[in-house]
Amino acid sequence: MFSINFSCKPFNLLFALLVCLFSGCSATNNQTIRATDDYPAPEKKLLVAVLPLNNLSSSPAPVGEIRQLLMSSFKQQGLGILPDETLERFIIKHRVRYVGGLDEMLAGNLKYETGADAVLITSVDLYKENPPPKVALTCRLVSTGKNPEILWMDGVGLAGDDSIGILELSLIEDPRELLNNAVRYLSTSLAAYLSGKGYLPVSRRKIIKFWPKVFYRSPVFEPGWKYTVAVVPFFNLSENRFAGEIIPLHFVNQLLRSENFAVIEPGIIRHLLLQMRITLDNGISLAGSRALFSRLDADLILTGKVFDYQDFEGSSGRAKVVFSALMIGRRGREVVWAGVSQNEGDYGVFFFDWGKINTAHVMASEMVQSALETLVE
Amino acid sequence: MVNKLTAIAKCYMKQQVPYLLSLKGFNPSLCDEEILMIRVANLANFKKLVLSSLIIFLFACAPGSSLTYFHDPQMDFAAVRSVAVMPFENLTRDSQAGERVRTVFASSLLSTGAVYVIPAGEVSRGITRAGILNPANPSMEEIEKFAGIIKVDALITGGLTEYGQVRSGNATANVVSMNVRMIEIQSRRTVWTASATRGGISIWDRLFGGGGEPMNDVIMEAVNDVLDKLFM
């Protein structure tokens, strides 16, 4: 019978060191990418229009290449892709400038003019090529027609040094490889959702550090009810000029995963804000929220401020995310929930960067999820 | 007297305990048992001294904090149901500091559940419509106009006098110094003021380095200090 004698002290030490090494080198990213997962294609082949990518990374990114990768990956998963020429013709005809959302009119026209069943809206939240590279993508599938609805949404944030392995053998230095991993995760997630299996299970760190530092929940809020939420762009005070758009996308993504919430497509809200000339000076006013409620079938409006949303280049540095959020209820126009979340990638990290979070995207995702847990639990 | 001092000096040389002088009425003609008892008492005193020194040292290691406040004794704070937190006056180099601290303060105040805090967007609308030039220090007329637009029981104004890193030698640490005051709308009186300073370089930072506490934690501590004095 095979047995190990642990009585020997040097052996014990060696074993402990090995365990530390393995655990230190373990993956720190929260998304579990399972490339081998095979999901059956949906019964009816969806025809999807893949919109040009919305670059929110504040740096040049190969958006055309990422789009092609996404299209070929989704094709492999059994989705029909609207030909580029048809989409381009539609974009030119309707003078589409904004590719970060879909309003009702555009969704209707897209349905009747091109026959597309859904639109894939993708944003590049982070793209850094300097080794170790970093990539963050957010994708959502929105139905076309009179009432556009978000069918699926997911995001992925990866860094080349998320799981370096022993002697840095698993370190990814090629940004294309990282990009492929991100695209593979998103296409697997979409395929799983369309096959009826719901969202991919994500291993989460249920760590207290992600919890909002301060939060308030009104007694009038009933956690068991189903609410429709309108997520308004956040007031951006950070150095990242797109942080006010990225954080709301995290909220939309996490709200969709909760059974308690239905989320209105952000493109519709943006269109209404422009149409009604509602400015977000330090957040939405009660008069602005009243006007929005009058045009939207929403129970809650979510808004907030972003103070920090920063990533870092290279291997040394720390990601930082600080935001505040509040929800205004339709009934009484009162604040029903508010919270302040703040975190840095190396909070609570003491040895060998174990547990360090390398991208603001992953950290924001965890923070938003924890913030929403205080709302529904 | 000379004899006494000589005996004390001898005893000091013998015992090597520098606190023998605390013995009052020391008599050189004491028997051995009594001397032993005195020595035991001295040792206990010495231990106490070491312990109290340690406690003082540990307190000295903590970062600096100060707090001053005023509470109007005639004010019924339970009558204040809703407040508007005005933008804080920012006297620091960081242009976003005032807004950061204001947001944490407003959220913390709301999270107490004691008062309802008007959303910042609505406060901004009130400031614009009332034409308040300096929201951190509104005049009586401006407060009156503001109250006509936004229905609140009290206004909270504040200022930030210090925000950021302080350096001393090789040591650095974050520090926040803030003050707030509550103005009751009906009487236009200042009914509560408080100021707090948190963070700074501790002896620990000087001796062992480190950048002090993260700024966000320092803000939270300062805000909590101030709010503790509102609900005392």
Description:
The complex is a heterodimer of chains A (377) and B (232). Chain A is α/β, with parallel strands linked by helices and 377 residues long. Chain A folds into two domains: 27-197, Rossmann fold, CATH 3.40.50; 208-376, Rossmann fold, CATH 3.40.50. Chain A is built from nine helices and 13 strands. In chain A, strands 7, 8, 9, 10, 11, 12 and 13 form a seven-stranded mixed beta sheet that branches. Chain B folds into two domains: 2-60, no CATH class; 63-230, Rossmann fold. Chain B is elongated and about 90 Å long. The N and C termini of chain B lie far apart (56 Å). Chain B has helices at residues 2-15, 32-61, 97-111, 120-130, 140-149, 203-208, 215-230; strands at 66-71, 82-85, 89-90, 116-117, 154-168, 171-184, 190-199. Chain B is 44% helix and 23% strand. In chain B, a hairpin with a 2-residue loop joins strand 5 and strand 6. Mean pLDDT of chain B is 80; it is low at 16-26. The interface between A and B is medium-sized, with 29 and 23 residues.
According to DSSP, the number of beta strands of chain B is: 7
Shape of chain A: globular
Helix content of chain B: 40-55%
Total count of domains of chain A: 2
What count of helical segments of chain B does DSSP give?
7
